[in-house]
Amino acid sequence: MNRKFWLLRGLRFFFFAALFVTVVGFATQALWNWLMPALFRLPAITLGQTYGLLLLSRILFGGFRGGQPGGWARKRREWKQRMAGRMEHLSPEAREKFRQQMQSRCGMASWGRRPETAAETPAQQPA
């Protein structure tokens, strides 16, 4: 390919990446300076502090492993596969007992109330 084409393409990418980072920084700074001093009596922050806050939040909440499309769906699928593998090793009686226990603990009918076994035998619960 043409060397000039790739150079222009790289410069355009750099320009839009810098523009994106700048817009996100100014938007975050504006939101912080609009909300935080009024709500929590925190000080207004500068643009440098805004970038530091964005970097800190990325480290604490997002990490640097890159975007993982469908990350939660993949983790759910893996969990379901692990549970299916564990259920295969149970006998049919143990499997049915497990299902009944899970239904009594997590079923829609038991939401907002204690399981019957725990209400009948309070001495068996750990202190």
Overview of this protein structure:
This protein is an all-alpha fold and 127 residues long. 72% of the residues lie in helices and 0% in strands. The chain is built from five helices and no strands. The chain has helices at residues 3-40, 47-62, 71-88, 92-106, 116-120. It is flat, with a radius of gyration of 27 Å. The N and C termini lie far apart (73 Å). The mean pLDDT is 83.
Q: Low-confidence spans: pLDDT under 50, at least 5 residues?
A: none
Number of helices: 5
State which percent range the strand residues make up. under 5%
Query: Mean pLDDT score, rounded?
Result: 83
SSE inventory with pairings:
Blueprint: H1 3-40, H2 47-62, H3 71-88, H4 92-106, H5 116-120
Helix pairs in contact: 1-2
